[in-house]
UniProtKB/TrEMBL annotation:
Topology of the protein relative to the lipid bilayer: Single-pass type I membrane protein
Coiled coil segments of this chain: none
Keyword Signal: yes
Record's protein name: Protein kish
InterPro entries found in the cross-reference section: Kish-B, Ksh1
PANTHER family from the UniProt entry: PROTEIN KISH-B
Chief place where the protein resides: Golgi
Amino acid sequence: MTNAYSLDGILVFGLLLICTCAYLKKVPRINSWLLSEKKGVWGVFYKAAIIGTRLHIAVAISCLTMAFYIVFLK
């Protein structure tokens, strides 16, 4: 179980947020509802979706690396 207050827990949370927002950006109804705000608290989801779509190769490699670390090394 990954602890939420450790560095790897924060990295897992960030990667999951980025991957989820990038996926939800492809769904038209959710894109207009959740990702329409570009400022404020809701802007975090928009910015995470942009990071996930523009850096999709780096995010995918980070997800695979983190999965390998959690499954085999931790």
